[in-house]
Every structure is written in C-alpha cells, then in structure tokens.
Specification:
The protein is α+β, with helices and mostly antiparallel strands and 127 residues long. It contains three helices and seven strands, in the order αββββαβββα. The protein is elongated, with a radius of gyration of 15 Å. The N terminus is likely disordered.
C-alpha cells in the first residue's frame, strides 16, 4: 500500500480489512469519515480503523478496550501534544499506542458502543 492513493476512504478501509483478515466475511458495524469498525464472521475478530491507526481485537480484547475508554478520567489526560492534553492507550505487548484527545475518546466510546450493539443484533438475527 506504500504509494497507494485511495480514491475514497471506503476503498482504503476495504483494502485494510483484507490485509487484517484473509476472508471476505467482514461486516461493517460502524463507519464514518475517519473510522470504521468491522467484525469478521470467519475469524471472529474486530478491526478498528481510527484516523491512521488500525487495531485488531478478539471479543474479549474489544470489550476490554471499550471498558478502558469508558473508565478514563480527566487526570489520565496528562501528555501535552500540540497544545492539547492527551492520553496514550497501549497494551503491554505493543510498542505503538493510541494518542487520543478527550474528544477522540468520547467519539471512540460512542462508536465502540454502537458497534457492540449492532453485533449483538446481527448475532440474534443470523445465528
């Protein structure tokens, strides 16, 4: 994808999803201009694409990520970047993490909650 210039964000996200999972069974649970959450019926993993970051989670990890977002307090935003306080979220295994503003966290909380709800509806209807 180096040198790739996506014509639309949708095409870009679709290519990323295919890199994350070798099946074409991904269901879009939530999507907006800069983000997308999908769930793969084949591998049972969530893919979160937010701005320029892409992360993959199993169900437990996705739930833990949602919990972490919902449990953040104002005091957790203590890193100063570009004149804004931010929080850095990363797991113990990764060298890369999310560097988020309070607005980013609020957005991701809403987005992940909607994705979880849509997955539950999907599972009731199709299972």
């Amino acid at each position: 994808m180096v040198g790739d210039t996506p014509t639309t964000s949708r095409n870009y996200y679709t290519r990323l999803n295919k890199l994350m999972c070798s099946t074409d069974q991904c269901i879009i649970l939530n999507e907006s201009q800069n983000s997308e959450i999908t769930w793969c019926k084949g591998c049972k993993k969530f893919t979160l694409i937010y701005k320029s970051t892409c992360a993959s989670f199993n169900y437990t990890e996705f739930s833990q990520f949602r919990s972490m977002l919902h449990n953040l307090k104002a005091k957790d935003f203590h890193y100063q970047f570009s004149n804004e306080k931010r929080v850095v979220l990363k797991n113990n295994l990764a060298q890369i993490g999310f560097c988020l503003t309070k607005q980013d966290v609020e957005y991701l909380k809403e987005m992940t909650s909607e994705a979880k709800n849509l997955l539950e509806v999907f599972q009731v209807i199709y299972n």
